[in-house]
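Hey, quick one: can you model this chain's 3D structure?
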Amino acid sequence: MAWFSLKPPVAEAEQESLGIDKEVLRTVKRIELSLRNTINTVMAGAYNSSFKGNGMEFSEVREYVPGDDVRSIDWNVTARTGTPYVKKYVEERELTMMLVVDASSSAEFGSDKEMKGQVMATISALMSFAAINNNDKVGLLIFTDQVELFIPPAKGRRHALRVVRELLVFKPQGKRTDLQTGLEYLSGILRRRSIVMVISDFQDSGYERALKMLRRRHDVIAVSVVDPREMALPDAGFVELEDPETGETLLVDTSDAKFREAFKKEAQNDLKRLRQLFQRISVDFVRIVTTPDAQETVAPLVDYFRRRSKEVRRGV
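Sure thing. Here's the predicted structure for all 316 residues.
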């Protein structure tokens, strides 16, 4: 289905009148404050226990006690001290969270207070702060029909704030969506096994092979962001719809019940196809429906991490 979005109003003069740096800073603070409770409570435990480390690393040696695996004996220390010592290992916890964010023109649509792109930034902020709170690295790739920006993974609050800021102020060159290009680029440069969260409205096709290749080496999570008006149209009479990626317009009669029902059914079919695609290639899928409330918006993602945390603990 070719998606069309309600044409948003243009307010360039209003944007120019704002002190953009101060406005962005206020927006970052607003996002962080709105998510603070979620980050510090639910996500603190659920995120940490949702992912396994990349292996085991040496921690220390201690004296051998009956029942220890003899294969773990450190023979050098044992020979030097004359007392059996064993090596102790801990799980290597440092992880890399890679955010792959869609900045195509279809993300500039929002039927309420928040554009889909703003919601994608909120989701990215949640994951960035959750990652740095666990001393993990976070990186960013912004794509449209080309790779727009790549920020290598790094640690620290300053770096996380940079990631969020870029998502709020970055002006992409491209308008259309090409998931394949972004995913293939990431596969080529991401050497260390990472958690890759792809945040998009997935209004694209032909990316299955690239996603499958990425999935072979990395833990991939697909987060689909959709506006309520992309799921169903209200009875509002004649409405001009515009495809933001191509500029094509279409006048439709939303008072026609059959048209509204066909629109809704096609949206449901698109969701079904998307779920089947991700299930087929073993990619976890989370669907986010935009709302004016940040905590309500990210609730499905928080629920996902709760479920995943329980599954990891059960060894599923």
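One thing worth noting: Residues 183 and 211 are 6 Å apart (CA to CA).
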